[in-house]
Write a structure and sequence with these properties.
Low-confidence stretches: none
Number of strands: 4
Shape: extended
Helix content: under 10%
Strand content: 5-15%
Strand order of the largest sheet: 1-2-3-4
Order of helices and strands: HEEEE
Structural class: mainly beta
Radius of gyration: 17 Å
Number of helices: 1
Distance between the termini: 49 Å
Length: 82
């Protein structure tokens, strides 16, 4: 048997300001999964090189997995996209 789940105290680390939220985002993805419209669609922050969706390279480049654009990247040292 599995051990009983335990409660973990959490707190909000950050949140997207309201002026950047777009209401009623509808896409093929949201329709296919049966959810209602979204108000934002963001990956979580990247704290190390292990998170899914975004990857940071030790040389400073950040890679983004994007269903429409492939794997765009930018250099976090220079803010130059590639």
């Amino acid at each position: 048997m599995l051990a009983a789940a335990w409660a973990m105290e959490t707190q909000v680390f950050t949140r997207l300001p309201d002026e950047f939220r777009v209401h009623d985002i509808k896409s093929a993805w949201t329709c296919a999964r049966g959810s209602g419209p979204l108000h934002l669609f963001l990956e979580g922050p990247v704290f190390d090189r292990k998170p899914n969706g975004l990857k940071s390279h030790r040389d400073g480049r950040i890679f983004v997995a994007d269903g429409h654009h492939g794997i765009p990247s930018f250099d976090s040292n220079t803010d130059v996209a590639s």
